[in-house]
Amino acid sequence: MTARIVTIFQTYVLQYPLRPQWRPYGLDDRCEEVRVNPQTAEVEIDLSIDTDSENYDSGADPRVQMKKQTLATSWKPPPISGCVVGIRSGNKLYFSPIHAVVQLRPSMRHLDNNSKESKRKAATRSNGDVAMKLEEHQEAKPSMTSKKQIKNVEQIKDIAAEWVHLKYNSLRSDMTARCLQKLMEQESSQIYFSMSSHDYLNSLCPGSSSDSFSSKAPPRRSLLALPLKERFQTWLCEGSLVHRFDALKYLAPDESLEEVLAVLQELAHLVQGLWVPKSSLVFRGEGGINVLARDYVLLLFSKDVIIKDSALPKSPPQLNKAMKEVLNVMATERPTFKDWKLKESPDFSFIKNNPSVVKKQEEVWESLEKYIIDNINRGKKGPSTRNPLKSSTTDNPTTSKVSNNQATMTSSGSTKTGMSEEVREATLKTVQRIFKDIKVCSFQQISQQLRDMALEVSGSARSSGFARGAVAAANSIDAFPEELQEIISKVAVNIHGIYVPVSSPDNKKFDEFRKVVIDLFRAEGPNAKLKKATISEAAKLQLQRDVSPIEYNKVLQELCVSQGSSWVLRSADVNPFKPTSS
Fold this sequence. Notes:
By secondary structure, the chain is an alpha+beta fold. It is built from 22 helices and 22 strands.
C-alpha cells in the first residue's frame, strides 16, 4: 500500500441523498458547470433541463420557470479527518486524503432570485429618501464602525470571489484518466501491511466470541483433502469457539446435509442454534474439573443466553474458578445485572429450519444435565452411593411411564386395565433372568428373547411357574409395551437405545464404578469413545477414591470393547446372549 504525502488535488466525495442509485442525475449528458468554494468546501452543479420534454411546462410564468437545475450544498460541510479514498492498480493500493464530503440537493435559487429582484425594484422607487437617511446615518457613526463594516463587506466579497468555476469531465474522458494517473505518481511513502490475512479478515468479519482469538486451523484447501469427520474435528478443535452452520457448510461442499449434521452431532453440542465442540474433543479425552465446568456452562447457555451469578456454584472453589475461565472466553460479564451474556447471537435460522435436530439435541442435554448436576452435588457433599437419576424412559422418546393402575387405550378407543401385579412380578423375574446372561441388548432383541423363552418352556410341567411368567412376559410385548419398558428400566439402563444391566450379576461390589461408566456413556451421546484418563478422573470425582486395576478391567470388559486407546460400548448388533471377549 502507498500513501501520498503531497498532492495538488483536493478530493471531494459527492453524495445525493434524494436520489437512489438506480436513478442517477446523468451528469455526463446534463452537467453544464461545476463551482467549488475551496475555503468553505461548498459545491454547486448546474444541470441542463430538457425543455422539449412532455413534463416541462413551457407556458408557465417566466418568473418561476426553470432554465437550469442547480444542485447545491444546503450547509457548510463539516471538516473531514482520517478518511481516504483508495485506487487499486495491479497489486498496489494508493490512498489519497479526502478534503470534504458534501451532500447535494436541488436548489430553488431561481425563486429566490425573483424575490430579490422584486425587492430591489421596490427599493429603487424610494431611493431618494433612503439615500438621505443612509448619508445621515453614516455621518453620525464613528469612523471605526465604518471601517468594521467595510472590513465585513470585503470579507464577504473575498469569500464570493473564492468560487472556482470548473468544467465537468466524464469518468471515461482523457482528463479523468490523467488525473487518476497523477494521483498514483505523487511523492509517496510505503505502508507495510503487518496484519496476517486471517487477522485482517477477522477484523472485518469477526468469527469468534473471543477478542484475543487467533485461529490455528489449517486453510480450507488442505481441510477439504481430509475425510469428513476428520475435517470437522480439526476445524472444531483449532478454529473458533462457536460455529454457525452456514459457515460450517463451506467445509463440506460435496456432502449432503444429512451427512454434515450426523458428523456435527457426534463431535459437537448445539447451543442456541450454534455448534460448540464437545468438551471431550476440546480437552483431548482428558477428564477432570475443567470438563465439568465447561459442560455446566454450556448446559446453562443451552437454556438461555444469560447466566445469573447465582446459578454458578460457589463450592468447591476450583470448580467456580474453572467456570469463570470458561465464561470469560464465551460471554460478557455484566456486573450491573449480576450476570453473564453469551457473546454470539443465537442462530435462529438453524433452529427454525432444523426442528428435528434441535429436538434431538434437547434430549441429549436433558440426559447430560442429570450427569452434570449429579457430579456437582457430589463435589459439594462428598461421596454418595445414592443414584439421583430416577428410572425413566426419557432416552427413548417413543415410550412413556405408565403407573400400575393406569388404564390404557386400545385402537378401537375402549379402555383396558393395566398389567396385574402377578403378571408384573412374573415379567420382572423373567427379564432379570434374561439379563443374567447378556451384556448389552436392544429393546427389539429383548422382545424376541422373551418370545423365544415362552416357546421353549411352553407345555413344560416341571417349570410351570417359570413357564407362566415367560408366557405373560411375551404377551406384555404387544399388550402392555409401555409397562414392559418400565419393568426393563428397573433392571437395565437405556444408553441411547442400548440396554445394559444396572448391576453386574458377577461383580456387585463394583456397581459404584459401573454407574460412573454408564453415566459417562449416557452423557457423551451415541458412538461415544472414552479414554482411560476421562474415566479415572470422573470416578475420582464421584467416588472420592482411585479405582483399582481389577475393578477397572472387570467393569470395562463387561460393558465395552477396546478400540485403540479408547473404550466403546458393546454393540447390540452382536449376539448379546453370547458375550464376546475383549
